[in-house]
Every structure is written in structure tokens, then in C-alpha cells.
Amino acid sequence: MYERLTLPVLPLREMVLFPGVSQPIGAGRPATLRAIEAALKSQSHLIFAVSQRENVDQVTPGILYTTGTIAKISQLQRGIGGVQLMLHGEVRGTALHYQDASGHLEAVVREAADLPPLDEQNQAFVALYREARERASDLGRKSGLPEDVVKQVLDGVTEPGRFADLVAGYLEIKPSDRQSLLETLGVEDRLRRVLVHVQRQIGMLDAQEDIKSQVQEELGERQREMYLREQLKAIHKELGEEEEAGDDDLKTRLKALELPEAARKEVDRELLRLERANKDSMEGQVIRTFLETVAELPWNQRSEESLDLERAATVLEEDHFGLQEVKDQVLEFLAVRKLRLETPGAQSKGNEDDKQAKGPILLFIGPPGVGKTSIAKSIARAMGRPYVRISLGGARDEADIRGHRRTYVGAMPGRIIQGMKQAGAKNPVFLLDEVDKLGVSFQGDPASALLEVLDPAQNDSFTDHYLGVPFDLSEVLFIATANFPQNIPGPLMDRMETVTFAGYTEREKQEIARRYLIPRQLQENGLTAEQLTITDDALQAVISSYTREAGVRQLEREIGKVGRKAARKIAGKEASIVNVTAADVPTLIGRPKVHPERKAGADDVGVATGMYYTPVGGDIMFVEASVMRGKGELTLTGQLGDVMKESARAAWTYAKSHADSLGIPEGRLQDSDVHVHVPAGAIPKDGPSAGVTMATALVSALSGRPARHDLAMTGEVTLRGKVLPIGGVKEKVLGAVRAGIQTIILPKENGRDLEDLPAEVRQTLDVHLVSDLGEVLSLALRGARFEAGHLVFEGDAPKEPKMVGR
């Protein structure tokens, strides 16, 4: 009996020692070595072996369990890194407290005696004990131990508590579960827990054995099948029979192809590998897939082109209204192609002529819904070429363009080669949709992979990673589409010929709706032209009050909504014919959703009308300037960007430096603050083209002269008063016309941009081209004219502007 002992502490990491079990342990920590030396100096060689709660090197009483095993050191072997000792567990012990003793821990330990069952002869306990012994014997045999060894070990222990500790010492369970068993003093409870762990371990060993036998059976079956196939192959060879029809057909197709030299070498090499490889092996499947891909590609197949310029022009006119620049470029390409083929001696040149007739690379830029994608399909129809479209929006992997190398499982060609296989000819019209929405990730930059594809000097030898050999793309007519050119990398942009889609005017939208949208929506809604008619006024109301876009997608949705309302009325027998007028539109599709600006009702001091551009069309805006008492400061509001703020400050400086010639009273600038505001403050605004508008509003407010309400202007202004050119003239002017303004001021250098306007619009406009801010003011301010570099006012003296007190 161990009543109360003071013993050195041996901390155990990730293990638990049970009473009655001998276990080898390695020790190397200095404190542990000192504890072992202290135990060896005692006559009993006893030590308190207790498990750590955490696997750390620095041992403190707080990380040690209180229940451990009083053990005896039976053997010791010293080495370079520490000592190896054999511990034999004697009895359980409970540490009353831990203390430090000369660099190692000591524990005051008391024996923790087992709690025997109330009746050891109880049938339930006897059955539990017998079951535990039988299952432990089964576990030993399933673990691979000799049966006589298992019997000898188990028969050496007859006491139930000791038996439970012996089996627990050999179980493969977590350290926390072993510690829980050590802390279980009740013999019956401990025996039951050990039996559960034994049963679980037996179940796991049985499952492992089943899996092992299944794997061996499957491998054996595969090896047997492979052996039989090799035998069958040898028999066919001895009999001189042909190989499988599939492989024979593939070889025939490959030999019939007119492949370039590099491709022919690669195909021959892969065919030899296919003959040597097992047909059902993974390698054989990869090789066969590659060869089938090569066989399906159009190496020399060309579609017959239609070079009839009149037919091509008719097809383009049938499919799209407007877009004259695009149609002209397509017809020009066809004309060049036709003349090359008709040149004397062209037939003798053979393929050399085809190589010279490389396909152009076009980039269609414009807002959504203007027909960029659909015009590409019409081009293919007009030229008689196959049409292939791939969407690049969101693509972030270079392999999307160039494909995967064949070393990877599941490798496949890139989208370019897949598109060529789909086309079945080497001269299709190939649409690269949404090229401005390519992404960049750690998997590469697909936009950079397109550089070779879209370069006429390089794409005759485009190399896909999957093919590994050059493929000729020089005869492909590539067409790319984009909404925002600034998102396209410069080198890629440089390789393409840009065609700008500026959006449709209201008149063009009305014509498109009549020709295409209304007939299509009648068909989709099951209506006939007699059942539903939409007047021109109703169509104009839908265009101006329910859509705000450069294209016609939203317009088609609104027309479709009208068609569905009419279909419901006709299907419900409410009417047999529906005639939609402008007054019926709000009833059918709700209140107007768009509220465009209209020109002001009268001239006003300090209010000038400007024009601005958006991707969905142009519009007008009002710039307001107000004078108040102050110290000559300028305040800007209305969500203005940095460029517009700079334009306002430049106009303010110009007004201050030319006050005498602008009719601004002396002292006004020093005693007054000016507040410039652009309404719709929730909408961010930026751009240089509001410079002349801000200058006009400022001068009008400071001089007290009213600005014309029936005139709109645009242009950038310098500190010297020079008016510089801007962009988006067509959209801006059309926006002003929609607002009811016919008099327009434009920079002189933008005069050639007026050619983009429809003829019927140009005839109604009064356009003034200016190069100096003085000319702008003489036109915009009432009673003013520009003479000899000075602004001269006629009539009454200007009104004193109303001053707003601070």
C-alpha cells in the first residue's frame, strides 16, 4: 500500500501509463532528467508518471492532470539526446499538490484505490467481464498478434480491474480518452468503457479489411482484363486481322488532312504512341482525344464566299437601319477581296493569294443595345461565311484563349480553337463579344493572350497550348465588341480598327421600331398587324418619355409590354382590334419614367444652358450663378468633379481679368461673392466641355445682362478666353434639339463633326462656330456684340444684380 508519498514527477506528452502495464519512454527535457535522477537515488525507484493537458516543453503544475500512475523504473539506458527507460505502472495515484524541488517537480501523492462492484458474482458483471475478455482476444488476433501470445498475456491477469487497465494500455485511442479511463475508479464502469473502445476498434479493423479485399479484388480484375486484352491483341496480330475500325477510321482521316509540316510530325508521333499504348489506359484515351481534335479542325477547308456586292448591301440593309460606316467597311473589304481574286495570274499563285487576303480585325465600340453583336451576324450572312461567337465577359484565365497543356487531366483547347472547330472552315466571321470585360487573375491575363490572335502579322501561326503546333487564323474575319474603350489594354487596342457606334437618334429609333421591333413583338405575343396598331405619336411618346438609352433594348421591352396588354384584351374578348395612341400609352404601361430637360421659358440673369454627353445620349443642363455681398470668393456646388471645378475657376479668373471689356461694374468683383451651382446635385458631373457655359453664367450674373434661354453651348475655355474643341458633338446637339433648342454654339474646330448629324436635323439648326469666349458672350447675352476684341452692349444700362445678404 502506498499511503502518502512524495515522489518526483515524470510529465508525459500525448500518452498515459496504466497500472500493470510496462512501457518504454524516452526523456530529454532537463527537468524530466533531474526528476529521473532523483527517483533513481531513492531505494524504491518510484516516480509519479502523469500526463500533460497540453503538449508544451515548459511544464508547470497547471498543465498536469491530478490523476496519474505511481510507476517503478525497471531499466535505464542513457544516450546522446537523453535517456530511454522502462516504466512499470504500479497503482493509480492522486496528486494532492505539486511543488518545485531543485529544478524539477515533486508531487505529494496518495494511492487511488479501485472501487470494486457491489457483488462480483452478479450475473451482469460476470457477463460483462467475459464479453470484455472475448472481445479483447478477438482484437489481439485481428491486430495480427499470434494467438498463443494473446492467450498468454490475457490469462496472466484474472482481476477485472487489472484486466481493464491491461487492455486499455494497448488500445489505439486518443490521449484524452486514455486519461478518462485512468480517472475511472469504478471497476465495472471502467470495464464497460474499455469494452466499447475494443468493439469500436474491432469494427474499424473489419472495415479496413473489407476495403483492402475490395481493392485487391478490383486490381486483380483489372490486371486480368489487361492480360486478356494483350492476349487478344497478340492473337489478332498472329491472324493478320485489321485493328479496330475506330482507330482505322481515325488514321484514315488524319492521313487525308493537308497538314503543315510541324502538325504532320506531331500527328505521326502521337499515332505511334497510340499504337504502343493500351487502348483502355488513361494515356491512350488522352492521345485519341487529341488526334480526334486535330482531325476535326478545318486545316484547309474554306467556305465559299459570296462576293456579290449588291447582294451583300441588300442583306445589310435588310437586317439593320443606319450604321452606314460599318456597312461601308464590310463592302470595301468585299470589293478588295473580289478584285484580288479577279487579278490576272491570281489562279497560278494558289494559296499565296489567300495568304495575302488577310481578314481585317474590327472593334465595334458603343453603348449597349445599338446592334454591335447583331451586325456581326449580318456581316457573316452577307459574306456567306460561317458565324462563330464567343463571350469573353468575365474570362480571367489565359487558358480560356490558349487552352491547357495536354499534361493536365481534362485538358482541352482554348476558345479560339474550339470556335474554329465549330465553324468547320478556316475563314469564318469570328465575334469576340465584350472584349473590354476581360479580367486579370493569378492564372494569367487573357487580354495579353489575345495579342497574337488579333495581330494579322502573327496569327497565321497561332499556337494553342493543347495542340502544340501552329494553326493559321489569318483568313478569319475577327470582330470584337466593347462598351468602354478605356478598359481595353493599349497594345490590344492598337491591333484593331475601331468603328464607333454613337447611338441612335429618336427618328432612327422610330424607324427601327417600325421595321424590326414592332413586327418581332407582334410575333412573340401572338398578334397580327391588323390586331395591334401603334401610331407614330404613341411610338414617339414611348421613345421620349419611357426610355433613356443609346440603343433600343428598353424600347423593345416597352413595345413588348404594350403588346402583352393588347394580347390580354384580345384574348379576353374585350376588343378585337387595339389601336394605341399617345393618350393610351400611360394607361397601358404606366406613368412616364424619364423626365428630360426642356429649355427654359424666358431669359434670366446668371442662368446659361449647356450641353453634356452620357453613354445613353446627350442632354442639356443649366448652370446658375448668383452674386452676393462678400469678399470676392467663388463657391461651387452640384457634385462637380475636379475638371468642372477647374473650368469654373478658369472662367472666374477670365471674368476678373477682363472685367472692363465685359461690362462688369468696377468694384463688383471685390465686394461680391459668386455662387455657381449646377442643378441635380445628386448626380456626379465632370468634364471640360462646361467651360464656356460656366463663363457665360458668371459674366451674366456679374454684368446683370440676361442670357438667352433658346441657345445651348458647349466647349472648353482657357484663361485667355480661347474656346477649345470637345467630343460627343452628335449626342450633345441631338439632346439640345430634343429639349426644343435650335440655336447652338460649338467650338470652331468641331465644325466637321456636324457631318455626323442627320440631314433633317442639320437643316433645322442655327449653328455658330466660335473660337473666342467674347464671341460666345456676344451671342449668348442679350443686347451684346463683339467688336475689335471687346464686348459692346446696346440699349439700356444693365440692371443692378440682386445682391443676396450674408
Any descriptors?
five-stranded parallel sheet, 43% helix, alpha/beta, five-stranded mixed β-barrel, 806 residues, 28 helices
Topology, number of strands: 28
Structural class: alpha/beta
Low-confidence stretches: 346-356
Instruction: Strand order, main sheet: write it out.
Output: 1-3-4-5-6
Averaged pLDDT: 83
Assign a percent range to the helix content.
40-55%
What is the gyration radius calculated from CA atoms?
A: 46 Å
Number of separate helices:
28
- Describe the global form: elongated
Distance between the termini: 102 Å
Largest sheet at a glance? Answer: 5 strands, mixed, barrel
Strand content: 15-25%
Overall description:
- The protein is an alpha/beta fold and 806 residues long.
- Helices cover 43% and strands 19% of the residues.
- The protein has 28 helices and 28 strands.
- The strands form nine sheets. The protein has a five-stranded mixed β-barrel with strand order 1-3-4-5-6. A five-stranded parallel β-sheet has the order 8-9-12-7-13, sandwiched between helices.
- α27 links the parallel β25 (743-747) and β26.
- The longest helix is centred in the first third of the chain and has 53 residues, at 187-239.
- The chain starts with a strand and ends in a 13-residue tail after the last strand.
- Mean pLDDT is 83; it is low at 346-356.
Question: Topology, pairings included?
Answer:
Blueprint: E1 5-12, E2 22-27, H1 30-41, E3 46-51, E4 67-78, E5 83-101, E6 104-111, H2 123-142, H3 147-155, H4 160-170, H5 175-183, H6 187-239, H7 245-256, H8 261-276, H9 282-296, H10 309-319, H11 324-342, H12 346-349, H13 351-356, E7 361-365, H14 372-383, E8 387-391, H15 399-402, H16 415-423, E9 429-433, H17 446-453, E10 462-463, E11 470-471, E12 477-482, H18 490-494, E13 497-500, H19 506-524, E14 532-534, H20 536-546, H21 553-571, E15 578-580, H22 585-589, E16 604-605, E17 607-614, E18 617-629, E19 634-637, H23 642-657, H24 668-671, E20 672-677, H25 691-703, E21 706-707, E22 711-713, E23 716-717, E24 723-724, H26 729-738, E25 743-747, H27 759-762, E26 766-770, H28 773-780, E27 784-787, E28 790-793
Parallel strand pairs: 1-3, 7-12, 7-13, 8-9, 9-12, 14-15, 19-20, 22-25, 25-26
Antiparallel strand pairs: 1-6, 2-5, 3-4, 4-5, 5-6, 10-11, 16-21, 17-18, 18-20, 23-24, 27-28
Helix pairs in contact: 2-3, 2-4, 2-6, 4-6, 8-9, 10-11, 10-14, 19-20, 19-21, 23-25, 25-28
